Amino acid sequence: MRILFIGNQSGTIVLFRKRLIEKFISKNCDVYTLTMDNNAENFKQIINIGAHPSRYEFSRSGTNPLSDIYNTFKLSKIIKELKPDVVFCFFPKPVIFGALASRLAGIKKIDVLLEGLGYCYTKHATPDSFKKKVLRTVQTTLYRIVLPRCRQVMFLNPDDHKELLINNNITVKSTQVVGGIGVNLNEYNYYSPKIEPVHFTMVSRLLIEKGVREFVHAAEKVKKVYPNVKFSIAGTFDDNPGGITSAEFESWVKSGDVEFLGQISDIKSHLENCSVFVLPSYREGVPRSTQEAMAVGRPIITTDVPGCRETVIDGKNGFLIPPWNEDALADKMMTFIQQPELIVTMGKASREIAQAKFDEEQACDLLVSVILS
Fold first, then answer.
1. Could you give the CA distance from residue 313 to residue 295 in angstroms, rounded to a whole number?
2. CATH code of 287's domain
3. 157 and 31 co-located in one domain
4. What CA–CA distance (Å, rounded) separates 37 from 9?
5. 223-277: per-residue pLDDT in tens?
6. In which domain, by residue range, is 344 found?
7. Which helix (H) or strand (E) element contains residue 40?
8. CA-CA distance, 335 to 215, in Å (whole number)?
9. Who contacts 14 (Cβ-Cβ below 8 Å, separation ≥6)?
10. Interacting residues of 186 by C-beta distance below 8 A, sequence separation 6+
11. Model-level pTM?
């Protein structure tokens, strides 16, 4: 059987689809990947996994409808040439246009995984702009056209399933909530946290909706009381419409309250060197970064919003806080500083929850069984 993965960037294939590809290959499947870039190093790694990478032309964050239509027809030609038995699309734009292009190419078995609903469906503290409302309406309309024509429509969390399908009365052939994509629990094993000094970290692109602004402002408040506490963010700029501006970033760097590490390759070592993992995001699928932090035994502070709430039992392995609330975030940070024993006990609880809910082997087995069904 020939299976085609359609995603956005080749780096996500390497980071998040490696084990899934290996499992398909073990089932005597030929795996092909299509991404919007052709990064040579990533393509080399994909080939080493055993898959066949190629590029398709699309703007990851562009909103030009004529360009999207043109590129959809171009993508359909590539799909027709590859002749896959099954197409598997993930991330919003590849789901919409990858599935549409697959139908144009005559593919009958199209499975999609929505790993979060993205920018258009993420609520902010301020009212949505007119442009964002229009984009959400357009995106929902496209989902109405595309999703009923897919064989399987999968979600990571039940909130996304309800908001997109139930609230918009979109009827699909088959749907299920599959949970997080999981972590290699042997690679990300438990590591006793360091608590001198307490170190709070985020692993995130510098996007407003990831809660980067709340993290920085909370760090400023905590630093005034506990100047030795450490704060860091591992992540870089993004061309998403919700990206932090360079001017705001420069002001944060100048203040010195948070250390900005940029893109780092060894996430595991970084997590091992932190005390508490923080993700004050406005919405997620089920965040992989939080799953990784839980696997190494870190307590979590995150928001009580779709996707994020799937990772924390409030008071057991961390704290759930309201979104957009830097005061609540600072308060929970100070709780860990004042009661450092919680870092250890809640971190161990995180590891136990990761073993029960976020085992990559189980997550990949479920996707394989669905896609090969």
1. 15
2. 3.40.50.2000
3. yes
4. 6
5. 999 999 999 999 987 666 678 888 899 999 999 999 999 999 899 999 999 999 9
6. 199-357
7. helix 40-49
8. 15
9. 42, 45, 46, 49
10. none
11. 0.92
